[in-house]
Amino acid sequence: MASTWTTTDNIHTLFYASSLVFSLGVVAVLYHVFAGERSRIPKGLRPPPSPPGARLFSGHSHIYNGQVTSNPSESQLVKWAEELGEIYQIQMGTQRWVVLSSPEAVKEIFDRQGTLTSSRNVNRVAMG
Domain-by-domain residue ranges, the chain? Predict the structure, then answer.
């Protein structure tokens, strides 16, 4: 009788331990994805403002009018440009998009500040 209780107890302990390891793995992956994105701003630059209302996993992707293949709602982008200025950022899933809403902002970022802003995203799959 004691061996049956011990076997059941071992199964429960193994289940709880594997659940804990799985949960810690999920937390580590989420931290890597979300915290890693914020730390990529080059030194000397401050992040552009961002509108409120970003959802936990999808960010601001709800502005796509319900269809993934559609363009973001132009009226919402214009509204944010009026509220936040010519340069702002939105979160689209795990990616940060910087929106430039005027020709002057484009010239400033790509022409005058090109040495600070011209870089490629790190491909996490290729980097390991």
Answer: 1-39, 48-128
